[in-house]
């Protein structure tokens, strides 16, 4: 069943290039336009939407945080992302012009289901992004875009997360296409970039041996911190969540710009800090800022584990460990930057003697609020 892998998690990490390719399949035509027939919400409703609200939990919430950057950049529609468990209790402002996106691998998460029910009661249209055919969340939504990750058995979400990101990018681009924003050329270019993602993820997977070795060497540590900026910030949160749930270690993700507002006090000698570095091309101001963050923490004794694009030489002098990922457009970087963090958490958990497919106290689908 595990196809020769030591765990379902390792198998599912390895399946990511295919999961991504399957989720793109049939949704982009030869001209680079999107054909999302399953989004049954009428085009005029999508054109008139004045706000997008994303609700989700855990890893799916992190996908939503990344989606916000893409949706706002490509469509200029304001987008909020909220933990499903918090959503309905704060009396959120929703109406017929609100498009709610509910993201869920299982389609059975009670917090997410209750959030979408609340949204529909207020007249909002709900689009589900879901990996499980015919599950409750898509059944109760106005439309569904299925991720084609295949069954995910390990409790920790890996391939479902990458396909949730793909689905979010597709929805963002589709909204841009339907609304005819001024980003049309960029949107066409991104559609082309998406088709190279399965190959890029494959290349990351081929270079993971040093990451495994590094993870094993950190098995005795108490804390690992994760830093990122822009879309690298939710990637940092996801890296920390994976480590908590699998390795039972204290792990925290921060926006790198927040360091000096508190977290830098946590930096002490030899504490491992994983830093997700944005591309030096594109929005290079982000890159320069994070390079100085790396210098700051290193000066205070941190052991820097730097995830950076191939060819990014500026960070190399400050990296105690350098993990290379293929060059991607800024907004798509989470698709490749998350993979080493999954491998890192899985290997560290194994080195600590933990059962990676069934972490203590956790269930694959959380059907109570
Ligand atoms: C983390 C993880 C959980 C789920 C969360 C939502 O690895 O698996 O955080 O992402 O419980 O589950 P779904 O996507 O099924 O709604």
TrEMBL record:
The active site is at residue 364. Keywords: Aminotransferase, Cytoplasm, Glutamine amidotransferase, Repeat, Transferase. Coiled coil: none annotated. The keyword Nucleotidyltransferase does not apply. It is found in: Cytoplasm. One of its GO terms (molecular function) is glutamine-fructose-6-phosphate transaminase (isomerizing) activity. Its EC number is 2.6.1.16. It catalyses: D-fructose 6-phosphate + L-glutamine = D-glucosamine 6-phosphate + L-glutamate. Residues 42-181, 214-359 form the SIS domain. Catalyzes the first step in hexosamine metabolism, converting fructose-6P into glucosamine-6P using glutamine as a nitrogen source. Homodimer. This is Glutamine--fructose-6-phosphate aminotransferase [isomerizing]. The gene is glmS.
